[in-house]
Amino acid sequence: MEILYQIPGDVTAGPLGAPELERRRRILQGWAPDDVRVDVADAPGGPLSIESHAEEFLCVPPMIAALTARPRQPDAVIVGCFGDPGLGALREILDCPIVGPFEAALHMAAQLGARTGVVTILDSVIPVLDHLVRGMGLSLRYAGAMAIDVPVLELRNNLEEVASRASDLALEMVRAKEADVLVLGCMSLSFLGIAEKIARRTGLPVINPAWCALESARALAAQGLVQSRRTYPKPRKAIVMAEERP
Amino acid sequence: MEILYQIPGDVTAGPLGAPELERRRRILQGWAPDDVRVDVADAPGGPLSIESHAEEFLCVPPMIAALTARPRQPDAVIVGCFGDPGLGALREILDCPIVGPFEAALHMAAQLGARTGVVTILDSVIPVLDHLVRGMGLSLRYAGAMAIDVPVLELRNNLEEVASRASDLALEMVRAKEADVLVLGCMSLSFLGIAEKIARRTGLPVINPAWCALESARALAAQGLVQSRRTYPKPRKAIVMAEERP
Amino acid sequence: MEILYQIPGDVTAGPLGAPELERRRRILQGWAPDDVRVDVADAPGGPLSIESHAEEFLCVPPMIAALTARPRQPDAVIVGCFGDPGLGALREILDCPIVGPFEAALHMAAQLGARTGVVTILDSVIPVLDHLVRGMGLSLRYAGAMAIDVPVLELRNNLEEVASRASDLALEMVRAKEADVLVLGCMSLSFLGIAEKIARRTGLPVINPAWCALESARALAAQGLVQSRRTYPKPRKAIVMAEERP
Amino acid sequence: MEILYQIPGDVTAGPLGAPELERRRRILQGWAPDDVRVDVADAPGGPLSIESHAEEFLCVPPMIAALTARPRQPDAVIVGCFGDPGLGALREILDCPIVGPFEAALHMAAQLGARTGVVTILDSVIPVLDHLVRGMGLSLRYAGAMAIDVPVLELRNNLEEVASRASDLALEMVRAKEADVLVLGCMSLSFLGIAEKIARRTGLPVINPAWCALESARALAAQGLVQSRRTYPKPRKAIVMAEERP
Amino acid sequence: MEILYQIPGDVTAGPLGAPELERRRRILQGWAPDDVRVDVADAPGGPLSIESHAEEFLCVPPMIAALTARPRQPDAVIVGCFGDPGLGALREILDCPIVGPFEAALHMAAQLGARTGVVTILDSVIPVLDHLVRGMGLSLRYAGAMAIDVPVLELRNNLEEVASRASDLALEMVRAKEADVLVLGCMSLSFLGIAEKIARRTGLPVINPAWCALESARALAAQGLVQSRRTYPKPRKAIVMAEERP
Amino acid sequence: MEILYQIPGDVTAGPLGAPELERRRRILQGWAPDDVRVDVADAPGGPLSIESHAEEFLCVPPMIAALTARPRQPDAVIVGCFGDPGLGALREILDCPIVGPFEAALHMAAQLGARTGVVTILDSVIPVLDHLVRGMGLSLRYAGAMAIDVPVLELRNNLEEVASRASDLALEMVRAKEADVLVLGCMSLSFLGIAEKIARRTGLPVINPAWCALESARALAAQGLVQSRRTYPKPRKAIVMAEERP
């Protein structure tokens, strides 16, 4: 089974470059069972990073272009961004299941506790997540999100501090918002080995959305389940990007 | 006051061409009070029409490009598509209020009746609207949507039949889903003079989303109200489209 | 177009007297576009002020009497009290759209941010508003209300202090209840030029419910929209007040 | 213990006259346990019957006047109208518990089944009930209402037909709306011995709101429970009706 | 009328022994009106106390065994545990109304104020109550629960301290969670005369769930109301416990 | 990794006997990836089948007894009954993740479509599922359930008819309740190879809850995730069953 972790931004053109794709692939492959081959791709021409609602929209067409250009579709696709950009669009266009890490994490968290809290990086993401939760109809099970406010590119140099701040926020959400399960709220946090640290300090289950999405993608593909064509009908007419017009 | 009706698709490149922009502008201007000047623009490079969730995503970057390329911002922007594509992105980027016709229509309908029903053109839009309603937190006030299933380009040649089918669906929604206010569920329906016909046949208030959005845009701009920067923070870094990269 | 701002209390008989009607009329007229003529009326025999749920009920019959006694109906009516008293009753009886300032403000606020907070004058109003919000089905978008606790008649002598306290409460609601849009929670606050001050201090959009109601009334009347007769059926039999009985 | 069944309309001045008060009193007293004395009063100057939202507002001041004019307060008050008019106002003003038949019936029904359906007399009441249910926050437990459409004054002459139509509607609500408990949706239906007939025909529990309200009033008074002064604060200033003004 | 207060645990085998049954019976009988005879029974073989979700499940079969072994059914049964264990099961099996103290208390509280707060003994109960409230569809009317953290067996020796801590928590829930009605969150608290103390200190109505359940049971039985067989169908086949198998 | 499919009833003592355990084990093992070993156990002394809410409670203590008697805990436990009996109790007592097939199926279905419909065997299960959905806070995503009404023991002899009836009900739920994803609503249906047939006839994704639960259990165990101890605290005192008391 091949699972594609599709990053909607243009990592190759950014400061981390192509090696970051390989780094993430190796980590994901390490989590995967033997019958799964993980591929990681980014979206040429997409934003260098995705830190706003605007960029969540700007990344979708390059991601669609990258996906439809592949010679053959994988068995499942993970949208490699915590805001689940373009989920509905991909579900319409592609024939394999599409997993959004935020959506998958919230549904898994709901099987571990009553109310889920998210620890994220930037304040600006919080209202986006709130909107997603309402759209999912899961507001009664959501405790909200708090941000550690460390720039993405500085995360790796401050692992201990990041874990410590994240744990403090988590405990604050437990106290003030009755959170009892945690989700890491950014894909960058997913590849730092930080979930375990926070779990240990807080005593709460901590979901790593990249790993969770991988498991969800595998679960759907293994069962042969694909999104409903009533909710996500195949577009009647071909999607033609401007640059392809004759 | 200048209100821009920004069509997210590329009407100019489509079958109706530039005259359609002018036709819509004249109708909108006819609805506007004297202190409002309406401008209509489309999005070069956007989809020729927007009939799927996928196209709702594909149209956003061209729409952002068109809007940010304008020499000066209008006093309010209406997103000229009933699915409200890119609302959150535009609210982050621009400094004037952004009106989504579906959102505006649902909030206005809620002041006229208990439960709103939508008459739309294609079945494929229905789950998109459902998702939007949940995201707005208005599910208790929403009766659902039904589609007349007439291709967009054939609408104009069948006005009587369209009005008749739409009225029948509306009455079916009254009976089975307890709808008591109607909203036309496609911007194409908004410029055909059809709302009055349906209102007469059903005895229900019928909201034309283009007109409603115009009034909402005017209302926000007149009061000097702009979206909250806590919900829609200005992007920290400049939005750079791939084609602009050095 | 004539819009009537109908105060449900008996201002003329109260300490401020008839000049207050004219003062409010001038302010409202100043906000209105050229095609709108604003009229302001009060309700003879109504409560001198409306500060409790009880008075919200006591004011309705005098308000209905005042409205039905008018030689001709206006194009839209604003109920000039933030608790929206008698909204459903007026919508049944009259043939023009009826606007409740609280209802209109909440629906407009929902287009500016995710969760609305209300700054009001007296604690006693807070549960009334809560009940209204549940009735509107908008609880997921409501952050709650807080009261500055300054007697209504002392408001005008303490504008700076009122603005300052209101801003502090607003920021407290941002912090503790995740409010991101504000609504002034009393019509008395609407005619003091205070919304702008609070907006400046808090950085949030602040809705003045009188102005918002005026715009909403204008928007409905301009579109020829009237409440649904399924939700608000015309009373089958004439409404006969006791004093009119033969 | 004295429980007052306060009719908000002016039954004495209507076609049924004062004997109807005594008839209802006898029925209520027949349901009451030995320690309860039931009194029935109407509201002089109130509407002759209450069949619209408008009349639900018009009846409140006469009802308040009637209640505050009593030499001493009863141990509990039942508002004798299914739309629960003025509940919040009475709870502010009076010092004893106030029971609304609709509210009481819905909360009791929720302990007998999952979703409650209401069989009422006139279509016009249905949206009023819907609004009440949203205000109570009980929408997930409400299956809706249907009307038999028999004029109130003709009810008594058609008991068999009324029971038969009501049972048919009830079964329709079971089928189409998943109702599994019923509530009679009008106080006129409460004094006709009809609940048992419908229960027998439908096999469902049928709540008579007058009896249910009596039991709820007794239960609250027996426990010494009175409404919260945080939700229903005593009005700060005396409620002065216009006719009492010097 | 006979009302059975069925304790799901095995009090007789525990430290308090059979006299505790008689003590509770006397208190309940003291609250009951003259036409009610209260019986109290426990469940031989049930847990000695019920302090976890696990014990709420373990107690149900012994409770069913105890109830079905009675020579004749009472007119109503109260499940004598605040977590309402086995409510749905008993409603299926028995032919008389079954009252859950938590469910009954929340529905009664909703008629006294807007949001109910629960003061309980142990933290571990809080998520169980949360889950029950969601299941009841009453989340919009629930302010949450807080625990005084005093072991059950030490309650009686510390009445003043218990009342004082409970009052402090109640006021904290008023401040932080907008509670305005209280419910004692454990049946052990119900037989200590503590509700009145807390009501006096907090100025809020305080519902004693044992008394409230008694009144609710009496109200249902007096009206001849029994649970809906659509929601709680009689089991098609006989319930055969393992120990009864041949 | 060892995953235990724990049937809460006493299959061995029933008509199908021990071979049914082995039959199910083989099917489950066939779905599992190589790194998973599936074990199937039943609950000696539990009900022979679980067809009512009552039996869902009666099965929990034998299931707990069976689970705690195992020499060592598996890596995850699936409760092998669609009503998810005892989920909260097992989550408190055991140290590995516990998966409820209904809960897991609904959360997976929510990633495939907007509203989930359940096709089940007996009408009596429908209100139990409704209650579970409210408890999960997922009502906005649930379209309801319908029953084919074929006795469990006759299922295997009528596979074609069962698939045909189930498909008809599914399409009825699509039409009348806007279902767009299906879940088989009984574990007996899960081991008949019927999901694929229904998927083919309806064109909808059909979730087999046994397979889905297996994948969910594997996903949780692989990530080392265990239920939150805030939601499901370990019982403070040992759980002592009556028969173990000295």
Please, what is the average pLDDT of chain A?
94
* C-alpha end-to-end distance of chain A: 37 Å
What's the gyration radius of chain A in Å?
Answer: 17 Å
User: Taking strands numbered 1, 2, ... along the chain, how are they ordered across the largest sheet of chain A?
Assistant: 2-1-3-4
Indicate the structural class of chain A: alpha/beta
- How many helices of chain A? The count is 10
Most residues in contact: chain pair: A-B, 51 and 51 residues
Low-confidence segments of chain A? none
Query: Which percent band covers the strand fraction of chain A?
Result: 5-15%
What oligomeric state do the depicted chains represent? homohexamer
> What's the story with the biggest beta sheet of chain A?
4 strands, parallel
Helical amount of chain A: 40-55%
Shape of chain A: globular
Order of helices and strands of chain A: EHEHHEHEHEHEHEHHEH
Number of strands of chain A: 8
Characterise this structure.
Chain A has helices at residues 18-31, 53-58, 60-69, 87-93, 101-109, 126-136, 159-177, 187-190, 195-202, 209-223; strands at residues 2-6, 37-41, 76-79, 98-99, 116-120, 142-147, 181-184, 206-207. With 246 residues, chain A is an alpha/beta fold. In chain A, the strands form 2 sheets. Chain A has a 4-stranded parallel sheet with strand order 2-1-3-4, with helices on both faces. In chain A, strands 6-5-7-8 form a 4-stranded parallel sheet, sandwiched between helices. The first copy, chain A, is globular. The N and C termini of chain A lie far apart (37 Å). At the C-D interface, helix 2, helix 3, helix 4 and helix 6 of C face helix 2, helix 3, helix 4 and helix 6 of D.
